[in-house]
User: Fold these one by one.
Assistant:
Number 1:
Amino acid sequence: MNPPAPAVEASGLRKSFGTVTAVDGIDLVLEPGRIYGLLGPNGSGKTTFIRMLAGLARPTAGKARVLGVEVPDRSLLGRIGYMPQAEAIYPELSAAENLSFFARLEGRMDRGVIDRTLELVELGDRRNTPAMHLSGGMRRRLSLACTLVHEPAVLLLDEPTVGVDPALRAQFWAHFRRLAAAGATILVASHVMDEADRCDELVFVRSGRILVRGTSAEVRARAGTPDLEAAFLHFAGLDAEGRPLAGTDR
Ligand SMILES: Nc1ncnc2c1ncn2[C@@H]1O[C@H](COP(=O)(O)OP(=O)(O)OP(=O)(O)O)[C@@H](O)[C@H]1O
Ligand SMILES: [Mg+2]
C-alpha cells in the first residue's frame, strides 16, 4: 500500500519582512490524521509559517502545498481551518451570527452544524450574546468554533487555548484527538508544554529554522532533559532560569 499523500509539504519555505527573516528555509512534511505541535520562542517564526500555510502570507522563497495544492489558492479556503493568534471574530455580531457568518463563507448553511459547534465550545447558552460582551476565554472559544464550523481537513491553530480554562482545554484536546482520528491534520502552535506532550510529533523552531523534530520522548532525549519545559529551554538556548546561555544567539 502506498503511504498516504502528505497533508502539508513545505520546501525551502522562507519569509522576510525587510531585513528580518521570520521563516528561514523550512522543509516539513505533515501526514494526515496526526497532531503536530509547533514550538519555539517568541518571534521564532511560528505565526508567519502558519500564515503562509493558510495562504495569508506569500512566501519570499520556496513553496508549500496543502492537500496537494500549492498555497496560496482560493480552492483551499474551505478545506483549511485557521485560528489566528489574534482574534478574528466580529465584536458586534452574536456568537451564533459569527458562526453562521464563517459557515456561510465556506458554503455551509445548516443550522445543525452551528448549534453543534456552539455546544462543543459550551457557548450554547450564549448564542445570542454579542461577541464583545463575552469574557476573554469565551471569545477564544468562539474563535475556535469559527475555525471548526466548516469541518476542515487541515487545522492550523495558533495558540488556540490561550485564556481557556483547564477543564475546557482538556475538552478541546479530546476534540482535536477525535478530529485527527477521523483523518484531520492538525498543526498547533503552543507555549503550553502539557499540550505539547499530547501531540503525536513536535517541531521546534528557532530563528525561523527547524531545530529538532520528533515525538515528545525523542525531543526530551535529544535535549537530555526529563521534561519538555526543560527541553524547550535547552533548544531555545536558555538556562534553567530562562537566561541566555553564553555563546548562543536567539
Ligand atoms: N507583518 C510583519 N512585518 C514585519 N515583521 C514581522 C511581521 N510579522 C512578523 N514579523 C517578524 O517576524 C518574526 C517572527 O514573528 P512570528 O510572529 O512569526 O513569531 P512567533 O514564533 O509566532 O512568535 P510568538 O511566540 O510571539 O507568537 C519576528 O521578528 C516578528 O517581529
Ligand atoms: Mg505567534
Number 2:
Amino acid sequence: MIAQAESVRGEERLEPIRIAVIGTGARGCDLIRALTTIVAVKIVAVCDPYGPHLERGWQYAGPLARTFTDHRKLLDETKPQAVVVAVPLASHFDICRDVLDAGCAVFCEKMMCYSVEQARNLVARVEEKRAVFQVGLQRRANAIYRQAAAMIQTGMLGRITAIQCQWHRHNNWRRPVPVPRGHADFAQLDRQRNWRLYRDSSQGLMAELGAHQLDVANWFLGTPPKCVFATGGIDYWRDGREVLDNISCLYEYEVTPRKPARGQTPVVGTNEEPYTVRVSYSSLQNNAFTGASELILGTHGTLFLSQKKGLFYRESLPETIDWSNRADKQASVVTSGKTLKLSNDPWAHHGAPFEIDSESDDTRDELVSFVEHVQQGDRATICSARDGLVNAATIVMANDSIEKRQTVEWLPLNG
Ligand SMILES: NC(=O)c1ccc[n+]([C@@H]2O[C@H](COP(=O)([O-])OP(=O)(O)OC[C@H]3O[C@@H](n4cnc5c(N)ncnc54)[C@H](O)[C@@H]3O)[C@@H](O)[C@H]2O)c1
C-alpha cells in the first residue's frame, strides 16, 4: 500500500511515456480508459484487426492515436516505449515476443501465456532483453490486498491454515456474433468473438477468473502449490462450448514458516517444520450468490477479501492473546471509500477500523505502477514475468488434473 501511495505521488513527476495498445476489445478499452487518466502517458497507437473494436479503442484513446490492424506495422511505424497487450490468451506469447523484439516494455494481460512452455520461453526472453514486464493481475496493485499482505507478513493472522476462494457468476460468457448462424462467416467470427469458449484458444474459467485468485494464494503463501486435484464439467451451458462451466479444485501448498520479526507476536503452532495449507477454489457460471472473494484463514484471524472490501475477524484466543483491554474484540473492518491510512505496522491500528482508500481503481493503479517502472527502468514490477509463469503453471496444472481425473504434481520451472 505504501508503494501505491508513492505511485500516486510519482505520477506527477514523470515524463510522459509513449504507449501503444494491442487488442482493443473489452479489456483493452478498460485499459485505454484508465491510461487516459494518467498524466504521464501518451497513447500513440491502438491496434485491432476487428473494425468495430478498433474504432471504439480509438474513440477512447483520442484523435492523436494512430490506428493499425497489424501489430508489427504499429511497432515499426510508431516505435512506442511501452505496449499494453490485451489480445485473446492464445496470442499473448506471439505478440509479447514481437513487442520485446522491438525493444519495448510490456504490460501483458493475464494469464500471461496459454501454455507453461510459452510462459517459460517468455521469461527467458524478458530476462535476455532486460525488459520491464508486468502481468495484468491487478490485485497486486489493490490497496486492500496489499494491506492484507502486510497484515499476513506481520503475523496478524497467525499461521495461515487454509484459503477458500471462489468466483461464482450467472452468465454464459457468450458474445453476440455480428452475422446470423448459417452465414458463411459465422464459424470464423464466432471463434474470434467467443475465443473464451474454445479449448484451443482458452484455458477456460481457471485462466479467465481463477488466475486472479490463485495469484493471491501464491503471493500470500510465498510459494507455488505442490499439487492439485480438480474436477469440472459442462453441466449447464450445453451450447457447443468446449470449456467447462463449473470447476472445483483443491490445491496443497507446502509452506515454510517465517520467523517472527523482532517485537512481533510469535505465530501459534509455528515451529521450523514446513506445513501443508490447502487452498480450495471453485468457479460456477450458473449461480452468483457468493460472487468473487477469498477467505484467508489463520490461527489468529480471518481475512475476507474482495476488490472493493476487506474484513478482518480476530479469532478469540484467550490463552495466547490478551484482548481484554482492547475495544475491537469483534472484528476490525477494512472498508472502501475512506481516506488512505495505512502503516507498515498494522498493529498500530488496533482498536480502530482499518481504513483503505479503495475508491481508487486497481486497474488504474496497476498501470500507474507499470508506467513508473518504465520511467525508472525498474524491472522489479509488481507482477513480473516470473510471477506470470508461476501463475500460468498453477492454472494449467488444475486443467490437467480435470482432464486426467487425477492429482497433478507441481513440476519444477526452469527458465
Ligand atoms: N485483468 C482483468 O481483469 C481482465 C478482464 C478481462 C479480460 N482480461 C484479459 O484480457 C485479454 C483480452 O480479453 P477481452 O475480454 O478484452 O477479449 P476481447 O475478445 O473482448 O478482445 C480481444 C481483442 O483482441 C483483438 N485481437 C485478436 N488478435 C489480435 C491481434 N493479433 N492483434 C491485435 N488485436 C487482436 C480481437 O479482435 C479483440 O478485439 C484476455 O487475455 C483476458 O483474459 C483481463
